[in-house]
Amino acid sequence: MASAAARDERSFLARHGGVGLMAALVLLVLAASVVSMGTGAVPLPPERVVRVLWLAATGAPDAISAGDRLVVIGIRLPRTLLGLMVGGALAVSGALMQGLFRNPLADPGLAGVSSGAALAAALVIVLGQPIVTFAAAALSSWTGAAPALQGGGTPFALLPLAAFGGGLLVTLLLYALSTRNGETRIATLLLAGVAIGALTGAVTGLLSYISDDRQLRDLTFWSLGSLGGATWDRVVTVAPAILPVFLAVPFLARGLNALALGEAEAFHLGFAVQRIKRATLFLVSVAVGAAVATSGVIGFVGLVVPHLLRLLHGADHRTLLPASALLGGALLVGADSLARTVVAPAELPIGILTAVLGAPFFLWLLLARGRDLSA
Amino acid sequence: MSALEARGVHLAAGGRSLVEAVDLSVAAGEMVVVAGPNGAGKSTLLRLLAGEARPTRGHVLYGGADIADLPPWRLALVRAVLPQSAHVAFPFRVHEVVQLGIDGVGRKLPRAARADIMTGALEAGDVLHLRDRLYQTLSGGERQRVQFARVLGQLRAGMRTADAASAPILLLDEPVSSLDLKHQSALLRAAHRLSREGVAVLAILHDLNLAAAFGDRLVVLNRGRVAARGTPVEVLTDALLHTVFEVPFRVGAVPPAPVPFVLPFEDAPPAEKAAMSHRQPSRAD
Question: Which of A72, B33, B43, B50 would bridge B215 by S-S if both were Cys, CB 3.0 to 4.6 A apart?
Answer without folding.
Answer: B33
